[in-house]
Specification:
The strands form 2 sheets. The protein has a 5-stranded parallel beta sheet with strand order 1-2-3-7-6, with helices on both faces. Strands 4-5 form a two-stranded antiparallel ribbon. The chain is globular and about 50 Å long. It has one domain: Thiamin diphosphate (ThDP)-binding fold, Pyr/PP domains (Rossmann fold, 3-Layer(aba) Sandwich). Strand 2, helix 6 and strand 3 form a beta-alpha-beta unit. The termini are far apart. It is built from 11 helices and 7 strands. The chain has helices at residues 5-29, 34-38, 41-51, 75-85, 124-137, 157-168, 189-192, 198-204, 217-230, 265-278, 289-300, and strands at 66-69, 145-150, 174-180, 183-184, 187-188, 208-213, 237-242. With 302 residues, it is of the alpha/beta class.
Length: 302
């Protein structure tokens, strides 16, 4: 099912907004994982603004779809999507990493719209398997559980234990999405711990596998539509989304140095102007730049 021109334009705008807000909150909070937040902007845009069956006015709706962010360090992008979708005010994003504000890693007890808490890598798929199994037993046949994993995260053995369990229980209401951006905290996946042959690994564990360009809105939408409505046949499905770490900002693309790093105010301003140019938007810098400078001065004791 193809996107209408209006829906395509909306999703492109949402991807831009998710990237922009991620940069802003990481810069303002002076901490965060910018590369892995930028790499999944299109995935979150299609999920939250087209594919997920959710209701921000009724976040505990029993038959809602669930999304588990296993790579919980990518929380800025997820927070941006939730705020844009109407779960909480946009201004709350600027409490990121503040005391009593949005946590650096997801905390479902503090932020509406989150389905799980996160931090230790490798745990999310196990949680998603439990959710999918529970929904199956409650006969919520149309509800889907989505789990976004990082590629480096699949070095964790418990990911594969969960994958084996999902296949054993025939959880075709479970859709894993791997943000395969090829870069970990200290370098490329193939140098640090290769995960290839990746497709064959998932198939060997009993999963259906779909590969997609993780920045192609049309392709993502088609793959998710197929995963939900066409391919369920007693197997869980994994969508391997080939993405670019730091997508949208040239300096950060495929650059492990922007895995865990917050730009200072001037760098954030430059990044945001570059994003605006890439998307053909009016050039606008870091709207909270002065506040960030003052915050930096405070922590420096100046």
């Amino acid at each position: 099912m193809r996107l209408s021109p209006d829906k395509f334009n909306e999703l492109e705008l949402r991807a831009y907004q998710i990237r922009r807000l991620s940069v802003e909150m990481i810069a303002f909070g002076m901490w965060g994982h910018i590369g892995g937040s930028l790499s999944m902007a299109e995935l979150l845009a299609v999920l939250y603004f087209h594919q997920l069956h959710i209701d921000p006015q009724n976040p505990q709706w029993a038959e809602r779809d669930r999304l588990v962010l296993s790579k919980a360090h990518g929380s800025p992008a997820l927070y941006a999507a939730l705020a844009l979708r109407g779960y909480f005010p946009i201004d709350d994003l600027y409490t990121y990493c503040d005391l009593h504000g949005l946590e650096g890693h997801t905390d479902m007890t503090k932020t509406v719209g989150l389905e799980t808490s996160g931090g230790p890598l490798g745990m999310g798929l196990s949680v998603a398997v439990g959710m999918a199994l529970g929904l199956r037993r409650h006969e919520h046949a149309a509800t889907r559980v989505y789990c976004i994993l990082g590629d480096g995260e699949t070095n964790e053995g418990n990911v594969w234990e969960a994958a084996m369990a999902a296949a054993h229980y025939h959880l075709d209401n479970l859709i894993a999405i791997v943000d395969y951006n090829k870069v970990m905290a200290k370098g490329f996946t193939w140098d640090l711990m290769s995960i290839e042959p990746f497709v064959e690994k998932w198939r060997a564990f009993g999963w259906d596998v779909v590969e997609v360009d993780g920045h192609d809105l049309e392709a993502i939408n088609h793959a998710l539509h197929q995963a939900r409505w066409v391919l369920p046949r007693g197997k869980p499905l994994v969508l391997i989304a080939h993405t670019v770490k730091g997508m949208g900002i040239h300096e950060a693309e495929f650059n492990y140095k922007w895995h865990t790093h917050a730009p200072d105010a001037k760098t954030a301003d430059r990044f945001l102007r570059e994003l605006a140019r890439r998307y053909g938007k009016p050039e606008e810098g870091f709207s909270r730049m002065q506040a960030s400078i003052e915050k930096e001065s405070f922590y420096a004791g100046e």
